[in-house]
Amino acid sequence: MKGLAPLFFGIFGTFAFSWVGLTVIPNWQIGHLNPQSDEEGTDIYPMPQSGMVQWGAHVYAANGCVYCHSEQVRAEYAGADIERKWGVRRSAPRDYIFERPVWLGKARMGQDLANIGARAPKEEESPSPTGSASPAPQGAAVSSPPPSAGSPSPASLPAATAPVAPRGSPAPKGPGSPAAAVSPSSPLPGGTVAAGPGTGVASPSPAAAAKASPAASPATPPSPAGPPWPEQTAGLPPMYSAAWHHVHLYSPRSINLDSNMPSYRFLYQARRISDARSSDALQLTGSDAPPEGWEIVPTYDAKCLVAYMMALNQSHPLKEVKSSGAAPAASPAASPSPAPGGQPPK
Amino acid sequence: MNPAGIPLKEPSVSAAAGDTGQLERAVIDASTRVPVLIFYTSAVAWLILGTLLAGFVSFKLHTPDLLSDISFLTWGRVRPAHMNVMVYGWASMAGMGTAIWLMARLCRTVLRYPLLLVAAAGFWNLGVLLGVGGILLGDSTGYQWLEFPSYAAIILFVAYTLVASWAVLMFRFRRGEQIYITQWYLLGAFLWFPWLYAAGQLMLFVVPVQGVLQAAVGWWYANNLLFLWFGAIGLGTAYYMIPKVIGRPVYSYHLATIGFWSYALFSSWTGMQRLVDGPFPAWMVTASIAATILTLIPVATVGLNHHMTMQGYFPLMRYSPTLRFTVFGAMSYTVFSLVGVLISLRSVARYVNFTQASIAYSHLGLYAFFTMVIFGSMYYIVPRLIGREWRYASLIKLHFWASAYGIGLMTLMLLAGGFLQGASMENPSLAFSESVESVLPYLRGRSLSGILLTVSHFIFAYHFGLMLFGLGRKSTVPTFLNPVEAEGAEAHI
Fold first, then answer.
1. Are residues A216 and A249 part of one domain?
2. What is the rounded distance in angstroms from the CA atom of residue A101 to the CA atom of residue A110?
3. Are A33 and B210 a contacting pair at CB < 8 A?
């Protein structure tokens, strides 16, 4: 080849072609999306993030969570994401417009986290630390301790026995979810298997429970769906609650023996209890528990990280994405089941 | 032709003493000594550090509790530290060292402005050091291969500007009209990298694009870094070393032209296939898949060209360390591209997306192809800078086989593990944890391959150190892997 000019122009031209094609044009196409809202201008989604959540995204990146966890739900035809209950619909560009940075992820050595916040038990954030609450105060509302919760109606039996229940039933979220409506109380504290929604619907409105459970079970036949992972462990906060995330980050294998996640103890600090145990101290058991008179509390980074995870929630419907299942409305029971019990209270 | 009867060096070296061509080359080589050796020495140091980090990462992945309580040794920080040490510390510095030497030789002029390069090497080392330190202290940005915090990125960019401006200056001093194939690739690499790096930094950190586009820009950057920076240097080096060592011109200039332009055009459009089925317009992914398939054109032309050049000379790989490493690398380029096409196809990508298979792919590109070619070039160049020959043929052989088996085993383990992991991940009747457990045995196998690579790198570093301290052999005969004399080729050496 002779002469520099053709070489220079060719080198610049080919690269400019790629740069324009793969970054500039997509930016023009989907780079300026706005949040969606309904006609009245309410119900805006997505919403800007709080400062703690943004710092949490930084902590997430700095500690390499992004190398093992993805944050995207693929459509039903493309993978088992929705069947695995990682979300109720596929992710869309609009879901991410306020996230900065965006961690779509590149590997799944751990679960997808796109909807990890949506899996938190209802009313999680409001009540006192779940650890200090004992089962006793709930005695009035919940007719009997959970193990026997299945007995009142045979219909709810699968929900109580199959560990699928916490995720198969109308779990995801939404202020108007039936579980939240009927049980404003905190979810059942530790010590129970299959805490959360299952018990929430059990006693106050048996009708709803009877409707919901059979509807849920065909959609998620317990055996082929396999056990959820990780499973609710006795003596720990309800799955996917903030307190549970802290214990999980501190000691993953106390929650799930098979977990391959490193522990992030350096995000926590041990300190001496001065007069009372702090409200945010971790509920640790067994060999992880600190010595007498000490407690383990999250650092600011850990709190932000958990705030970030609790904010990951794509269960809100988007106009451009068809939700899976036949429940397109903003039904709180955005689970695949069109649960008739899931409609009412708004 | 009897393979043993083929001259193992450039013909001019065996020509009569006083040959001006040979003298000229010796003068040019001498002028590159200081900058190239600085780049090489730093690169080897980073290689050793990166290897240690790699072993640590690999073991921690299947033994998560290993030293996990120390913040700067947590897996999620050591892994990006390893990747960036290898990408910017080892591969980029060694690649630039080779590229500098090649530029001087091919421009047929003594190296001008060596201080520019010395300063660039200093800044580059500082940038990598700060960047890796920043990552370990929790300052990583989290974008693949752009994890360095901004203060390190700026220093790297300054260093890089020095190298690129040196390259352009050298081009102005070149003698002769003809621009050899290697120079196309090198010029391409030198001009693509700053644009790529600047575009990546600007679109992700300075004026970040909205939402998911950040992921698209991230993959665009990572893929183009692999192809247009490392790939271009690696291919350019192979185009020089193979004909040079066997003393025969490249088979076809025409094929080389097609190969170069199709490479520039198509490989730069790949990358988005990693976003398959993600929240993106489908055309982006499809365009990249199509581009990946079209890269088979440069693969075929480059592969054919090298093959036809080597035709009849393959037995020389028994003797020449440079040739053995370079040909291994050139062949790996074909394998790398074929694997790339395979895991890009939509139906396959669905399985292997999010699995270890993508790690096999990047190691094929960065190690089996690029690093092996660069090892080959270092075996050729270092003796010419120092005036000594490599001391032990046995160490070179060990290095080669440990590297070849190590990377082969690693690729197999990660590909097989990745496919298995993907299959169980896509099967909703299996718990998610089973997809992780299914890959663990393969990750242990990968750690074994890592031990092989560690051995090979320590051997190489030791050998390189001997050369650096002037402990190489004093001889006019290059170090061959097997005694050539035994087969009656004395006359040619």
1. no
2. 20
3. yes
- B143, B268, B425 ranked by CB distance to A108: nearest: B425
Nearest neighbour of A61 by CB, restricted to B140, B425, B437: B140
Q: Which residues pair with B473 in a beta bridge?
A: B389
d(CA B404, CA B321): 13
Dihedrals phi, psi of A239, to nearest 5 degrees: -55, 140
CA B225 to chain centre: 11
Left, alpha or beta for A325 (phi > 0: left; psi -120 to 50: alpha)?
A: left
Beta carbons of A27 and B213 less than 8 Å apart:
yes
What SS3 state is found at A268? strand
Number of folded domains that form chain A: 2
Pair B128, B152: CB distance under 8 Å: yes
Nearest to A113 by CA among A127, A102, A100, A129: A102
| Tally of CB atoms within 10 A around A43 | 12
- Using an 8 Å CB-CB cutoff, list chain A residues near B278: 72, 74, 91, 104
Residue A286 domain-assigned (yes or no): yes
Structural domain including A270 reads 242-300
Instruction: Identify the architecture of domain B21-175 in CATH.
Output: Up-down Bundle (1.20)
In a shared domain, residues A206 and A183: yes
Return the SS3 of A270: strand
CB B432 to CB A84 under 8 A? yes
Give pLDDT tens digits for A269-305. Answer: 999 988 888 888 898 888 888 888 899 999 999 999 9
Q: What residue ranges do the domains of chain B occupy?
A: 21-175
B271 contacts A83? CB cut-off 8 A: no
Do residues B221 and A44 make contact, with C-beta atoms less than 8 angstroms apart? no
The answer to whether the Cα torsion of A330, A331, A335, A336 is positive or negative is negative
Partners of residue B196 in chain A, C-beta under 8 Å: 15
Could you tell me the end-to-end alpha-carbon distance of chain B, in angstroms, rounded to an integer? 17
Identify whether A76 is part of a domain: no
- C-beta atoms of B179 and A2 within 8 A: yes
Task: Give the closest of B141, B281, B428 to A80, CB-based.
Answer: B428
Q: Name residue, tokens 């008179």.
A: A293
* pLDDT tens figures, A51-101: 999 999 999 999 999 999 999 999 888 888 898 889 999 999 999 999 888
How do residues B351-394 score in pLDDT, each as one tens digit? 898 999 999 999 999 999 999 999 999 999 999 999 999 999 99
Say yes or no: ipTM exceeds 0.85: yes
The closest alpha carbon to A256, from A242, A281, A236, belongs to A236
Cβ-defined contacts of B168-176 (< 8 Å, 24+): B169/B112, B169/B113, B169/B116, B170/B103, B170/B104, B170/B107, B170/B109, B170/B111, B170/B112, B171/A4, B171/B103, B171/B107, B173/B107, B173/B109, B173/B112, B174/B106, B174/B107, B174/B108, B174/B109, B175/B107, B175/B108, B175/B109, B176/B108
Residue B278 vs residue B490, higher pLDDT: B278
Place of tokens 């790198």: B457
Does any domain span residue A219?
Answer: yes
d(CA B462, CA A81): 49
Q: Do A107 and B440 touch (CB under 8 A)?
A: no
> Are the beta carbons of A311 and A117 closer than 8 angstroms?
yes
Q: Are residues A216 and A261 in the same domain?
A: no
Is A33 domain-assigned?
no
Question: Cα dist. B480→B321, B380, B493 in Å?
Answer: 7, 11, 11
| Cα–Cα nearest to B426, from B275, B277, B280, B286 | B277
Distance CA(A159)–CA(A161), nearest Å, equals 6
Of the three residues A284, A300, A316, the one that is the final residue of a domain is A300
Q: Which residue has the tokens 């090198």?
A: B186
10 Å Cβ neighbour count for A29? 15
Encoded amino acid at B90, one letter: W
Beta bridge partners of A270: A296
